[in-house]
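Students often ask why we bother predicting the structure of a whole assembly rather than each chain alone. The short answer is interfaces. A chain on its own may look different once its partners are present, and contacts between molecules only exist in the joint model. In this exercise we take two input lines together and write out one structure for the complete complex. Read the inputs first and try to guess which parts will touch.
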Amino acid sequence: MMKATRGSLLGIEHLEAGEILKILTLARRMNPQKPQTLLRGKKVLLLFYEASTRTRSSFEIAAKSLGAMTTLVLSSGSSIEKGESLLDTGYTLRGVGADVIVMRHPHAGAPHLMAQHLDIPVINAGDGMHEHPSQALLDAYTILRRKKTFKGLQIAIVGDIYHSRVARSNIHLLSKFGAKITLAGPPELLPETAATLAPGLHIVRTAEEAVRGADVVMVLRVQKERLAGMKISLQDYIARYQITLQRLKLAKKDALLMHPGPIIRGLELTWEVADCPQSMIVEEVRNGVIVRMAILARALGKAK
Amino acid sequence: MKDRKENHSLLIKNGRVIDPAAKIDALLDVLLRDGQVAEVAPPGKTRGTAHEKIEARGLVVAPGFLDIHVHLREPGQSYKESVASGTAAAAAGGFTSVCCMPNTQPVVDSADWVTWLQQPERGAVVNVFPIAAATKASKGGTLTDFRSLQRAGAVAITDDGKPILGDDIMRDALRLASEINLPVIQHAEDTRMTEHCSMNEGPTSFRLGLHGMKTIAEASVVERDVQLATQFAGARLHVAHLSTADALKAVRKGKRSKAHITCEVTPHHFTLTDADIRDYDANFKMNPPLRSQADREAMLAGLADGSIDAIATDHAPHAPQEKIIEFERAAFGITGLETAIGLSISQLHLGHKIPLPRIVELFTAGPARVIGLRGRGTLVRGSHADVTIFDPKKRWTYDASKSRSRSHNSPFDGWAMTGKVVATIVGGRVVYRGD
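Now the answer. The structure tokens for the assembled complex follow.
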């Protein structure tokens, strides 16, 4: 396995189940309403090569709630624009005193490269189409608050799986704990190869088949431009895969409706679905801060 | 290199001489004199004396290896490699001749650059045979002047790195080249299907979140080229770095026709698969990419049964700033000259029971036939005194940091392998001596 500083979080795939549970347990003890000094004096560098609302603000608030200092570096308006390489940017941030780097990058594997060359923990806040581990952890946390266990849960993941780092991380995480996962989407956005990602994955081509009897319905964002680029008609997509109240009724009564955001109402889900009582969309965001507090505490060796 | 050294002779004694072109596999002495093979005779039976002797007991004495697919990066990119450094690496890998690719800066699309590459000032340690661009600046628009390129010393034409996609221009290239018996080498990739791709399409690309190249992007171009080549008597189509089972199928079909269709496979494509790409290490990124296990097995079968003509390295040196970066942004290509024979013996001979003479053929008679290099790839009397002596049993570990190449971008760094070059002889002179 690759070399990365202890406390790094690069992906879910190679994380052991025990380690995942540890983070989730630690998260239960975190409370952003009661500021702590656990990470006082620590410098958390937020390095974002891509736009982000939730993840960025969530990591920043998580760090500050633990008493850490944060600095945000965006690719635009920094030396990255002048052609500085990823590693040189990393060495620079290390030089100014970063204790941990939280990074989002459009290229898969960028955090891995960084982690291999730096002596501080690197937290992957989303790398290309690869993984988004903090999102999977906060989704797991959200599910566990409502369901006793992952084992045997029926999970439906609907939408653009191919381009989704959230889907990959969630599939890895939930399958480690014995959930039964069904993926739904058109072949262009959900190739048959997706079934090889974890054992026991099912692929279906209608939303109904995936949602029927589900305990959790995860909806993924679908980009209009992508549909157009792949010559998928928007109407067809909506007709087949949009999550409506009617379709959601096929799921178990107490099913959770989840979405990593940003949501596009009227595309992958209807307006009503986004705001229905089963919707966890806002709670996911709230839990995101808690879980990221745990991730940062673990990264800096304060996971006691 | 090609000027004959007068009054010099070298006797290689007691080696196992494997010369597939001459169907020889026996314990023999080889006497080299004045740049030529003077005699091959049973031990102690050569006539005349030699200035220098090499004891080759327990070693294989083979015709000098030819690598028909090498990027020497000159002109213009000597920060990656030069003719001098690249041929030094070739010598260390047992290659006595290399054919260098024209995708340099500028592109080798004129007789002047072909001549320049062969000048003594370049400092070549082994024979260098330039391959010239098929189209001006390899842009796929206008064909280059094949006749003048050939007169200057070009041994084939290609737009390697890029495919010749247009049907008409490929047809014209094959037709014009057939008139002067020049091979057309194709980098078979329909780039319209591989945009943004950095590896092979399959479970691993899905898992890593990388866009994958479909095998059809290679196979469809090979199928079309084979069809075009059969239209002209004497056309010679050579498929570079073939990597997919489907493309090999097309080559096999082509070989059954009258056309002269050949292909090469690289050591990395018969050694590794896309599942070996770990931790986004760009030293596992090349084009064509590492393929599936089924494709790899097809390559192994083709190497064994004779449908693949040559092993070629596609030695593609790159500087660290082009490789130690984000996988998707990193340059395609890996070095390969120094690891080719070790991987071939380890994988093909020890791993898959392919006899040594067949492996030697893939490094000698095979590539010589593809390019049409006379008097090379064999040790028959009168051929060039190019000889590779190797120890098929020697175990060693490759250390890329000690490479003679200017670049170190090898996925085989730290690999233990069996089979090592003991001496490389070019024109009767020892240019490399292994430990």
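Check your guess against this: The interface with chain B takes residues 2, 13, 85-87, 105, 107-110, 112-113, 116, 127-131, 162, 165, 168, 191, 193-194, 196-197 of chain A (CB under 8 Å).
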